[in-house]
Amino acid sequence: MENPLLAFTDKGIYCEQAGVYLDPWKPVDKAIISHGHADHSRWGHGRYITHERNVPIIEHRLGNIHSTGVSWGESFTVNGVRFSLHPAGHIPGSSQIRVEYKGEVWVFSGDYKTGDDGLSTPYEPVRCHAFITECTFGLPAFKWRPQEEVFRDINEWWAENRSEGKTSILFGYSLGKAQRLLKHLDTSIGKVYTHAAIENMNEVIRTFLPLPETSRITKETQRDELRGHLVLAPPSAHGSPWLRKMVPYETATASGWMAFRGARRRRAVDRGFVLSDHCDWAGLLESIEATGATRVICTHGYSDIFSRFLREKGLDARTEETQYEGELAEMNSTEGAEIT
Hints:
Elements: E1 7-8, E2 13-15, E3 20-22, E4 30-32, E5 47-51, H1 54-62, E6 67-70, E7 76-78, E8 81-87, E9 95-101, E10 104-108, E11 130-135, H2 147-163, E12 167-171, H3 177-184, E13 192-194, H4 196-205, E14 215-216, H5 223-226, E15 230-233, E16 249-254, H6 263-266, E17 271-273, H7 281-291, E18 295-301, H8 303-312, E19 316-319, H9 327-332
Parallel strand pairs: 3-4, 4-5, 5-6, 10-11, 11-18, 12-15, 12-16, 13-14, 13-15, 16-17, 18-19
Antiparallel strand pairs: 1-2, 2-3, 7-8, 8-9, 9-10
């Protein structure tokens, strides 16, 4: 296709007409950022434009940056190109980026999920001609259970551990997953303690969203204080000396990858709960259909398999390479590795 509205370059997704990049992975002058995860919002850009709820998140993560926040559906124009941000439902402040020029509309979804998690602004389909979609879980084998059932299992696991005098350690990425877990934990079972990396992010998110009460774990926290209660920690804390004060404990991970047989064993945790902040197979297909797009560009995840399926359905679908990692970035992140 000649001169597409959005092009994939070595720096990121580029709108040449506006001179603007979307979630670039190399430093650029002007960037529109979909959300705060490290593979989508990187340090070094001259200017950041993002949803107003994402501003405190990326400023916390990236430090002193030049950032501007906009609200949902608020349009802004750069050299004749009209941009707006729309809820992606992935994590708090996550957006789809709509780009319109001379009647042609493209939407970059970033990371997204169609289910309402009760914390993030729910996903809204945006009509467009071309849709750029992630494919993190783009296989028919991925089919999410209702989150109410998953949280019932998590709370039952915690209650059982408490009855046995054990501390429950639940691993989840410090931005998004940890707050979603916190939102739905049954605090009548006990108290929720947090690793510093998660509590620091909780403090940021509490500036615009209410969250249940938590207690930060410090060097002064004693083992007996934790017994029977639940500890939220980032994956980077797994296997660290920081866990020694928790003995006796059981560990669990909440991730879409727990749907894979053997994933719990490879992660060396006692339990795995299938809970993802990304679409499953059906969610991807339903969201694409809702956009009305006839052109679909598939990025990170099972992009080859997913795009082939879309072509068989009659869509103009192809893949593009990016440096986005989806839930792998969240699982493998070293954020919070400095144990305090």
